[in-house]
Write a structure and sequence with these properties.
Strand order of the largest sheet: 1-4-2-3
Distance between the termini: 5 Å
Number of strands: 4
Number of helices: 5
Oligomer: single chain
Mean pLDDT: 89
């Protein structure tokens, strides 16, 4: 769990993260985002809209929680972030899926 949030924080400091729903939606439509990470506490409506947009753009959507951890990792009060660099995106996916296989919740 800590590895995932540490990598997300590193990506933020490297300028490879867009924060907030509007920025992520705009980045997805522009083709800049490689991966979307959303807080598990996201509202049902926002979740459905984000899932539909990610599906239409062919991008993976991951849910991380509990509430507030995502914002704390990137240093902003945000429930949705988009990763723009492929290397960070790939590493985050690896960590996320490894932790899910191990039974640990991200």
């Amino acid at each position: 769990q800590d590895d995932f949030y540490a990598m997300l924080g590193l990506a933020r400091r490297a300028g490879a993260v867009l924060c907030g729903s509007f920025a992520v939606q705009k980045g997805l439509r522009a083709g800049k985002i490689r991966l979307v990470v959303a807080d598990e506490a996201l509202s049902q409506r926002a979740r459905q809209e984000l899932e539909a947009l990610c599906r239409s753009c062919g991008r993976e959507l991951m849910f991380a929680g509990p509430d507030g951890c995502l914002g704390q990792a990137v240093g902003k009060q945000s429930k949705v972030v988009g990763v723009t660099k492929q290397a960070f995106s790939q590493r985050l996916k690896e960590i996320y899926h490894a932790q899910r296989r191990g039974g640990e919740t991200v």
